[in-house]
Design goal:
Low-confidence stretches: 1-29
Strand order of the largest sheet: 10-9-8-7-6-5-4-3-2-1-27
Distance between the termini: 39 Å
């Protein structure tokens, strides 16, 4: 069973909760100025308040240091942009229609506009309780994948969660999984062929640690035979290598990273992370041959974190010189490139609200070991583009 570190690791519960809602009523997608392309930018979101549905998406230019809002307000979540397009969920109460709307939208950086891809509603007057809880574009930007939530009662716990893929050219929709875990997080392979997710019977209501693979054309599904355990709702649970040849999963109870070969979908090796001195969190691929991770150590009610890299060739951990006073490493950027990592921190004495209101983003250069503070605070999701 997963537990939380005191006061700080409730982020994913909040992120995937559909209870809170924005009080504003957008009459149309509210976009900022054109940012041309994603090159040389960090894309992040910024909370207007402590509600997880009222956020702005910004583009931070690494060269000029300027911020440009690209989607203003009512953003519930967004994920990695692909081909200069960013997918996100907009959540707001429409006063004129007297119902709460959930919309999947895609912002096009080049066209500087958003398109509504799909919408649904939560309308107690009509006994309709539907929403979206996660969304992502395939890396080729040809399809969008999302979790569709529904229930028959006015409850905060959705009992029916489907994993759906929609082709943006043909509008053909395929249900990849009829039931996925309640705190859903999925990752699409860089070659746009497969998706990894938590699923299995009963997972909609209770959640579990069972990991499934499905092909995006709906012709293949497999439960991975790997021993995964998660002590904390903290960090990514699985990640693809850039060439899609490997998938990494985590067993936090045994402090292991499990490397799965995607040709066979079998475990190829286990990486013992105990030498880092803490529990492994947020393992990501820096490139096809190396991994970065956060080591989380809890001792006498005190939490400390350290950043490490790991070579898949030499099987060696290297501690990275990242030590920010009175702050804990919280999240690693999943698009690390060319020796550059982006990570976020929260205060050492963080409260639950600090997860959304007091995150700080940093840029780390592994070559010269420099650290640069970027963006605004309250930035939960962020992606770097070289």
């Amino acid at each position: 069973m997963k537990t939380f570190l005191p006061n700080i690791l409730c982020a994913l519960i909040f992120v995937f909760s559909l209870n809170s809602c924005s009080k504003t009523d957008p009459t149309s997608p509210d976009n900022g100025n054109s940012t041309s392309t994603l090159s040389g930018k960090v894309i992040y979101n910024f909370g207007l308040d402590d509600r997880d549905t009222n956020r702005i998406i910004y583009a931070y230019d690494l060269q000029s240091g300027s911020n440009s809002p690209i989607v203003k307000g009512n953003v519930y979540c967004f994920t990695k942009p692909e081909k200069n397009k960013v997918p996100y969920i907009r959540s707001y109460f429409n006063n004129a229609m007297n119902k709460h709307l959930y919309q999947i939208e895609i912002y096009d950086f080049l066209a500087n506009k958003s398109d509504i891809i799909s919408s649904t509603e939560r309308n107690p007057m009509k006994n309709i309780f539907r929403g979206y809880s996660y969304v992502a574009l395939t890396p080729d930007a040809k399809s969008i994948v999302y979790v569709f939530d529904s229930t028959n009662t006015n409850t905060t716990l959705y009992q029916n969660r489907k994993l759906v893929v929609r082709n943006l050219e043909s509008n053909r929709t395929i249900v990849l999984a009829k039931e996925v875990a309640k705190e859903q997080y999925f990752k699409i392979s860089p070659d746009s062929k497969y998706i990894v997710y938590f699923g299995g019977e009963g997972s909609s209501s209770f959640g579990n640690d069972e990991i499934y693979i499905s092909s995006l054309d709906g012709t293949f599904e497999k439960k991975l035979d790997v021993d995964t355990k998660y002590m904390y709702d903290f960090g990514t649970w699985f990640e693809w290598s850039p060439d899609s040849k490997y998938l990494i999963c985590v067993n936090q109870e045994r402090d292991k990273i499990i490397v799965v070969n995607t040709n066979t979908w079998l475990k190829e090796k286990e990486i013992d992370c105990s030498s880092t001195g803490g529990v492994v969190g947020f393992p990501i691929f820096i490139d096809n041959l190396s991994i970065a991770l956060i080591s989380i150590k809890r001792e006498n009610q005190k939490v400390t974190t350290r950043l490490f890299s790991y070579s898949l060739i030499d099987n060696v951990f290297t501690a990275l010189d990242v030590n920010i006073e009175n702050e804990l490493l919280f999240k690693l950027n999943p698009t690390a490139k060319n020796g550059t990592l982006v990570f976020s921190t929260i205060p050492t004495n963080a409260t639950e609200l600090d997860i959304f209101r007091n995150n700080q983003i940093y840029l780390y250069n592994a070559k010269d070991k420099s650290i640069k503070k970027i963006g605004e605070k309250s930035s939960f999701d962020f992606f770097l583009f070289d």
